[in-house]
Amino acid sequence: MGKVIGLRCITCGRIYPPDTGIFTCPECGPYNGTLEVIYDYEGLKKRLNRENWVVPSLPGHYRYIHLLPFEDTNLISPLEVGNTPLIKSHTLEQKYKSKGIYLKDDTRNATLSYKDRASSIALIKAREEGSKGIIVASTGNAASSMAGFGASVGMPVHVLVPKSIPEGKLLQLLLFKANVVMIDGIYDTCFDISIKVAKETGLYLRSTAVNPYLSEGKKTSAFEIAEQLRYNLPDYVFVPVGDGCIIESVYKGFKELKLLGLTNTVPRIIGVQAKNSAPLLKAFENNSQKIEFIENPETVADSISVGIPRDGIKALKAVRDSDGFFVGVSDEEILFAIRELAEDTGLFVEPAAAAAFAGFKRSLKERRIPVNSTSVILLTGNGLKDPKAIRNIVKKDVPVLSSDDLDGVIKAIER
Ligand SMILES: Cc1ncc(COP(=O)(O)O)c(C=O)c1O
Ligand SMILES: [Zn+2]
User: Fold this and answer.
1) Does the Cβ of 304 fall within 6 Å of ligand 1?
2) Of 57, 72, 155, 269, which residue is the least packed, with the fewest Cβ within 10 Å?
């Protein structure tokens, strides 16, 4: 069962007990002092092996309960999460003359995004604490995900989102009966407000980075990839990056597998950012520890439109420690990648997810990765989340014919 021994500050290394309600290190502050959940790895290493580390009787990603921060399986939402397909695309492999291209299809989670991995764990932690409700700041997916998981067990969810939130995400929120507050500002502003509201109201805080338990849910795709590839890990994993929480969590997952002796290597972790919303790419390219924030991040990929990457410290560390890199892609490349994935693989993804694929292509083109390597590309959100972003890139001249015009229909089909 969950064996958390403490929460360790990413900057100073101080360890705090897991149940004090402390979410960031008071010594290092909320930005530098994000915490990391640590387990009794020595004890786990003695007990766990490739035959017993997964508990097959549990659903979805809860199967990794030995490495998750909870004990009581009664607190699990009935919505399934994780255990998503890893699709080997022969079409893309041929096209790019690549040895292995695997698409991790996280558009299939209960609320159609990767964020369900985190929301599922946040819900358990909030229920453990007997919280009266949950608050989250979000570009859209974290909120709609949390709202769905809240709805699944009757937990009230309050969300702060920018008024530019895409239609699909907003409809999910409204249908899941979340208490939606739109802010006339960008996501970064919503985030700051959420911290203050949580303090004032006592609501459980599910905003990213400042709650270390979210990473525990987000790391499970690494476990799945290891299992799905029978422990032959890929050379590269491509991750779209906004706040940096997904990427640091994926790295943590691979690192834990290695710590427990379940695997021997850690893949190189590649962060993909949209060019005009890329503070982490910039810090990486400048070889700097300092992350310069951006006031007006701009990209069609709303989920990674983040000027103040809240998990920036951990994200940079994940990329550097794994010997990976950051790559930037334009909106044009992102939109093209959406269409290419749809046409060549049958997968329909939102812009942020397509960014990961665009980053893979750019890395190949710039020879930052060799063709005879294997890559996993994380597809983090479903295309129906944001139809407006995609409307402009699809063919518009669809014929409308009269119901008795069989000749016309045949002509149109043979066109
Ligand atoms: C679909 C999708 N992809 C990628 C990301 C980026 O994740 P992170 O902010 O943890 O870097 C998000 C976050 O909202 C997302 O919703
Ligand atoms: Zn600290």
Assistant:
1) yes
2) 57
- Does any ligand 1 atom lie closer than 6 A to the CB of residue 246? yes
CA distances 32 to 25, 118, 323, 370, Å, are 8, 21, 22, 35
Residue with tokens 């949580």: 198
Q: Cβ(138)–Cβ(411) under 8 Å?
A: no
Walk me through the domains of the chain, giving residue ranges and CATH numbers.
86-110+214-391 (3.40.50.1100)
CA distance 37 to 310: 17
Long-range contacts of 290-298 (CB under 8 A, 24+ apart): 291/316, 293/188, 296/186, 297/186
Q: Indicate the pLDDT class of residue 7, thresholds 50, 70 and 90.
A: very high
pTM, two decimal places: 0.97
Cα–Cα distance, 111 to 149 (Å, whole number): 8
Q: Is the pLDDT of residue 42 over 50?
A: yes
Nearest to 388 by CA among 345, 338, 328, 340: 338
Report the separation in Å between the CA atom of 117 and the middle of ligand 2, taken as the mean of its atom positions.
Answer: 26
